[in-house]
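__Record contents__

***
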Amino acid sequence: MKGRSPPRDEYLIRQYQDHSQWFERIRTLIHEDGPLTAVNRDPKTWEAARSAGVHQKSIDEYVDTLVKLDANEELVGVAGLGEVCLIVAGITYGLFDNGVIKGYVYAPADPRPVVGDLDNWPTGIEDVMTAYRPMGDNWYLFELHH
């Protein structure tokens, strides 16, 4: 995906604050049509959603909102993270699958650890793979190190 480092927390929080209605619409669309969780901006994923019974209008609205949020360009949800997961950065370093995935997640189950700043992880959580930063209305930023 774009860039060599994930977007800063403050930028992502501002996006959430400025466009909270888009986040609510994403949550509502997924609640109405669960197969949308497997949709990204690749048209191949749209066919799978249609085959699962999702109406084209819902797919179009969902993808349009992903584009506005600059989310899920190539990736979709991270297993076990939460029902609604919007990925804004997937960066791989080196020859192996190691790097960072960062984005938004709605109401993850028992999110731990909750931190005040994903850009500067506090000492003592170096062994943790995923951390969360609350934004409001059950939405969190997440950062996954893999």
Q: What stands out?
A: The beta strands are 84-93, 98-106, 130-136, 139-145. The first strand starts at residue 84 and ends at 93. The chain has one domain: 9-145.
